[in-house]
Amino acid sequence: xxxxxxxxxxxxxxxxxxxxxxxxxxxxxxxxxxxxxxxxxxxxxxxxxxxxxxxxxxxxxxxxxxxxxxxxxxxxxxxxxxxxxxxxxxxxxxxxxxxxxxxxxxxxxxxxxxxxxxxxxxxxxxxxxxxxxxxxxxxxxxxxxxxxxxxxxxxxx
Length: 157
Hints:
Blueprint: H1 2-22, E1 35-37, E2 45-57, H2 66-80, H3 86-113, E3 116-125, E4 130-135, E5 146-150, E6 153-156
Antiparallel strand pairs: 1-4, 2-3, 2-5, 3-4, 5-6
Helix pairs in contact: 1-2, 1-3, 2-3
């Protein structure tokens, strides 16, 4: 009976942590790897390249990871070994929360090491406005080149 109650407590805390992590905002996914336009205008535009920067972009994640869940479960089990009565429940909850935090931190550090580099182009558009576009390849574009932007993808013309 006591083991079942403890398991239910750990499961409940893990579920709350899982739901809380699902509520975090996510960066827009880029499944094609081509370009992430910074404007909603999908028509062809023209401009001149003002600057090009190589920037690190973190790998997109699908929400809560296995490290967070495993950390919560292990932390809950370890926390349960401490105290007795209502102190035991508090230790279980705190252990699960601390384990989830530690697991999430380890996951973030691992993902940071897996970041990719993308090119950030600043363009002076034909209407005089500046716009920024990001894409995974440079395609032999240099500062000063005239470019055509089709659906957020740059190419020289």
